[in-house]
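forwarding from the other thread:

> can someone predict this with nicotinamide-adenine-dinucleotide?

sure thing
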Amino acid sequence: MGKGNQKNILITGGAGFIGSHVVRRFVENYQDYHIFNLDALTYAGNLENLKDIEDHNNYTFIKGDITNDDFLTNLFSENEFDGVIHLAAESHVDRSISDPLSFVKTNVLGTVNLLNQSVKMAKKNPDFRFYHVSTDEVYGALGDTGFFTESTPYSPNSPYSASKASSDHFVRAYGETYGLPFVVSNCSNNYGPNHFPEKLIPLFINNIINNKPLPVYGDGNYTRDWLYVKDHARAIDLVFHEGINGETYNIGGFNEWKNIDLVRLLCKLMDKKLGRKEGASEELIAFVKDRPGHDLRYAIDATKINKELGWSPSVTFEQGLELTIEWYFENKEWLEHVTSGDYKEYYKKQYQ
Ligand code: NAD
Ligand code: DAU
């Protein structure tokens, strides 16, 4: 492996929501790359996300856990990688509140395991680069005004964001201490096809279809900055290829929505799609107990990636939401598969 002009790229978490869009993009656009998708297939990992590309010659799936150091040592001694794009993580804030340790294990320990292997790989291969995909939640919460920039101090408020902040710090520390070539990006809330229905938008799409209550936390006046997942995958492609070593890039949608306004828009679009009378789905809205430590507002200033790498979102929120809703209607089987079994237990525990 790693011979001639072919580049071997290891993408972790490629069976998850964002990872699957990144894997597809790289497999389809870079015939001279071999893409290794390393994923433990937790509840959030799903090979159905990648059915359309699973037979491509330049793609290999590897089932494995980044918390298993022996496994990673073997993987890195058997293959020469030119780059690692690291997305594998526990990603849901609510789960981090009930089970913080899993987040420490995967997001901190797992990342440090990968960094240790990457330092050795970078010594053998001077073109090697480690790309850490992170979140805007590391910056904490904004008030009614202002934006997160790359120099905003870290102030994570949930076990999830604390674990991601910690992993970001380790990546930077490995750059300083061991000279590891790295880039980091911190992105706002993604939405789109293949999003697991524990997160706001796919959960509410699924509940509207099934005429179930829409559990809005608190008063619904929390703000998120939404980005279509394929625009994030395109940004990751750009940062991986053109980002400057040691730099961080904020990625966001320039698209802030209060949860309650977003939910009302979603209800309106879903009523149209389902042929229900306007206002029918809004009746499902139920204000429920708030999430502890709930961050009031996230908003990204994405000027740096826009100016330096020429990136900006390609779809409006309304277009992206229409595409997303369309995808869930065309992939009812996917939704049925991921909402059977363990999901039912999770839902009961979280919402009843
Ligand atoms: P996801 O939960 O949908 O997918 C995570 C993937 O990682 C799954 O396929 C899972 O099987 C895999 N995984 C988990 N633990 C693993 C382990 N120990 N070893 C190997 N694989 C493991 O997450 P996502 O929403 O696609 O997020 C991907 C990355 O992007 C995460 O690092 C997340 O912090 C970051 N991020 C997400 C968002 C968002 O809005 N979803 C925004 C910014 C950044
Ligand atoms: O900002 C980036 C982050 O966005 C990512 O790093 C995380 O991996 C991702 O999960 C997401 O975190 P959020 O906590 O913002 O996403 P979530 O979809 O869980 O919630 C969005 C908002 O909706 C938030 O204010 C909480 C609220 N919410 C969520 C759920 C699941 C509800 O009101 N009801 C719900 O049932």
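The chain has twelve helices and twelve strands. thats all i got for now
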